Amino acid sequence: MYDTPSPASSAILERDGRFLLIRRRNPPSADLFAFPGGRGEPGETPAETAVREFEEETGIAVYGPELFATYDLKQQNEAGEITSHFFLSVFLVQSDATTEAVAADDAADAGWYSVEEIRRLPVPASVLECAERLEARMQARGITA
């Protein structure tokens, strides 16, 4: 059933050195903080999924998706059986700088977090990895929050 991963996408929006995260309401990552995103729909490209899911979960229309990372994510139960399997495409996106996030759809909460704050939140490893990579990239370019 989970031999072939289901497509999923998420999107990263950064403002002033802080990243928009939502707290997931539903499995497979219920109660974890993550970048807005979700499952792909039939006929949808990964970039289209990222843009659609971002707006559904935050109310923010985003544009210019740029592929940043991909992950083959498997979750297993205690018996070692795979309970979910997703191929996640993570995109960097842009938006109007004044639009406020409002948690909706699968999002219980939405907020802006620094990498230091993300390190203290319950997040999937992929979220922390992406945030730390982006922070390092900003520092290398001399961009500080």
TrEMBL record:
Its cofactor is Mg(2+). This is NUDIX domain-containing protein. Belongs to the Nudix hydrolase family. Keywords: Hydrolase. InterPro entries: Nudix_hydrolase, NUDIX_hydrolase-like_dom_sf, NUDIX_hydrolase_CS, NUDIX_hydrolase_dom. The keyword Chaperone does not apply. It comes from Rhizobium oryzicola. Residues 4-136 form the Nudix hydrolase domain.
